[in-house]
Amino acid sequence: MMSMFFWAFVVGGIICTIGQMMFDVFKLTPGHTLSTLVVIGAILDGFGLYEPLIDFAGAGATIPITSFGNSLVHGALQEAEKHGIIGVLTGMFEVTSSGISAAIIFGFIGALLFKPKG
């Protein structure tokens, strides 16, 4: 049980360290870093490598932004098997819609409750 938390911490830390290095060493903007990490997650899922990482590291692999790329590709591939080419589009939206909806709703609630500085 304790090793599960250890590996989640290590894997999540490695992903975050890669992101921080992209900022500091390669001087990438937050948008470029975010996009790159999403694409890396998508590529890893396309090759079937991200699901075993999730099984191994749990939240260490599902919480970072790389998991969003994994979700996009995973949903697209699942729905493509069922519905063909149209499933590629619908699958991406179906799998990620709850997370995106939650982010929008909680962002809106936060904006109502707190005064933004600007």
From TrEMBL:
The chain crosses the membrane at residues 6-26, 85-114. InterPro entries: Spore_V_AE (IPR014204), SpoVA (IPR005562). Keywords: Membrane, Transmembrane, Transmembrane helix. Pfam families: SpoVAC_SpoVAEB (PF03862). This is Stage V sporulation protein AE. The lineage of its organism: Bacteria, Bacillati, Bacillota, Bacilli, Bacillales.
